[in-house]
Amino acid sequence: MLTSQFLLLGAILFCIGVYGVIARKNAVLVLMSIELILNSVNINLLAFALRNGSADGHTFALYIIAVAAAEVGVGLALVLLIYRNRRSIGLDELSEMRG
Amino acid sequence: MFAAELLVAQNIGFAVIALMMIVAALRVVTTSNVVHAALWLVVVLGGAAAQYILLAAEFVAVTQVLVYIGAVMVLFLFGTMLTRARIGAERDLNNAYWRLGIPVAGALFAAMAIALVSSFGDEQLPAEPEVTSVQQISDQIFGPYLLPFWALSFVLLAAIIGAIVLARKD
Q1: Residue B157's domain spans which residues?
Q2: What one-character DSSP code corresponds to residue B143?
Q3: B132 and chain A in contact, CB less than 8 A
Q4: Among A5, B4, B155, B161, which is 20 to 30 Å from B118 by CA?
Q5: Of the candidates B92, B94, B155, which has its C-beta nearest A70's C-beta?
Q6: CB pairs A-B closer than 8 Å
Q7: What is the pTM of this model?
Q8: pLDDT digits over B21-53, tens only?
């Protein structure tokens, strides 16, 4: 197996996630795109762990999984709060802070 | 001989799973149904777990299945359920300027692909990798990476308290 095949798969998933963050308006779908980005980073970390024969990449992949779980929990709580106050989770309608 | 056959099998497995993941990821960002997007995301996350096994990282693969497919997916489906009146196809999930995302993502991928191919080219991964044992990972976590582990514990604690405070009805 080549190193670059895993890195290219990570790059493709990362770019699809970036497209999702830019294109989507629904806040839950933006959070899903962020999960795609975090997963592509994990693939890269594990590919480099195998290439260098060290366990550092595994450790950081586990840390990223934990941070992603925390992020989804807080993010969905925020989305729920916004929905309760405004009856909508369209990100382009949140414009109170516009100067 | 055996190693060569194993390598062919690994490459075929990689190609099949990678294709599946890319199609599913494209469906996540293009489908017009939030519940379907969540279910396509399960395919991507499961494929990622399979790739971790190909990369000789069993423990991370199992954690991925437990945490992502088990817990995060349930959170997403709950979030969808609690924030939407109806389940089904829906227009108006994209921004007015969603087309802007295509050139941005394309340019980003072109830059990354050029950088990756020029630096790693056709470098091979070790054909018979040493499987990283759980003991090695725990030695890392509770040895040199103890400080990030503590920080992560506080992050999780703050996230739990924050999520409860935010989602509580007063």
Answers
A1: 133-170
A2: T
A3: yes
A4: B4
A5: B155
A6: 255
A7: 0.90
A8: 999 999 999 988 888 999 999 999 999 999 999
